[in-house]
Design the sequence.
């Protein structure tokens, strides 16, 4: 019943950090406590985060809510129209139905219709996968394959220490000739390996955009992370990071998302293990670190075959 209410109200779960479970009794662990907000709050506080603190003398752990507000007004952010929407056969029908709907009780009907149309376009986008990026199943290649000319390839990976739960992500960006553009390694705190993968995807796309690249391939060896982006599933501990990734995908550029074999993702895997637990600012590698030179040479040799 409550899940139906969350769905109907279109509430979103705030991203979390810390222990996955919020309630403990004996050997039983469950997550009973949640923080939810609506779309308006999500836009005002896109970096909102809930930390699960340690339980002290009580079955439930305290929740610390942190919501830094971005500068500027959320309503001033432009709405990006995605050209790929038009390619779906139901697009014209959706626009027509939304625009012709009669709600004369509203004084400013045109503005309302535009806002409602935007909202439904976003739902349509997520449901039909009609945004401007292609998706590919695992290609089975056992080695790294360079992107087409004028494209860049961003490889990402996440790692997690099973002893203490600290996770990190790594990402490397290379061009069509296999040239190194930039690499990163960053700690993301205590979270699941899936969340670390998603942080790697977000950071990888963000840095490709900042480099001025407008044609990018994102590769991950995580089937779960790949499916989350393609299907836009809300069943993840930190849906906020999914929102950040989707916001990047809305921008005016071409992005292909691929699921690859782990053997083809060795560079990102190695980078993810380089971040120390407290290095939240991250490490930037403008040149390849020595620890991965042999992998780069191996990739280069395979390119020449």
Sequence:
């Amino acid at each position: 019943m409550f899940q139906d209410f969350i769905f109907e109200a279109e509430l979103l779960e705030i991203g979390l950090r810390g222990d996955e479970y919020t309630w403990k009794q004996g050997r039983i662990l469950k997550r009973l406590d949640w923080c939810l907000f609506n779309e308006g709050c999500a836009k005002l506080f896109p970096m909102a985060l809930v930390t699960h603190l340690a339980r002290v003398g009580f079955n439930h752990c305290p929740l610390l809510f942190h919501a830094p507000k971005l500068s500027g007004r959320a309503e001033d952010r432009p709405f990006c129209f995605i050209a790929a929407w038009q390619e779906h056969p139901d697009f014209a029908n959706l626009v027509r139905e939304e625009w012709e709907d009669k709600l004369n009780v509203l004084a400013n009907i045109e503005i309302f219709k535009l806002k409602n149309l935007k909202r439904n376009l976003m739902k349509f986008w997520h449901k039909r996968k009609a945004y401007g990026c292609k998706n590919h199943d695992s290609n089975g290649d056992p080695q790294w394959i360079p992107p087409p000319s004028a494209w860049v390839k961003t490889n990402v990976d996440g790692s997690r220490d099973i002893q203490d739960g600290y996770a990190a992500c790594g990402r490397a960006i290379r061009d069509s000739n296999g040239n190194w553009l930039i690499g990163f390694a960053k700690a993301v705190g205590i979270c699941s390996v899936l969340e670390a993968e998603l942080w790697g995807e977000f950071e990888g796309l963000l840095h490709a955009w900042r480099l001025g690249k407008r044609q990018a391939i994102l590769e991950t060896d995580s089937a779960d992370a790949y499916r989350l982006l393609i299907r836009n599933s809300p069943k993840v501990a930190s849906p906020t990071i999914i929102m950040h990734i989707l916001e990047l995908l809305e921008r005016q550029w071409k992005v292909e998302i691929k699921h690859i074999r782990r053997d083809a993702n060795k560079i990102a895997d190695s980078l993810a293990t380089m971040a120390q637990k407290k290095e939240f600012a991250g490490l930037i590698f403008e040149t390849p670190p020595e620890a991965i030179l042999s992998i780069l040479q191996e990739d280069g040799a395979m390119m020449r075959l």
Summary: Residues 109-128 form the longest helix (20 residues).
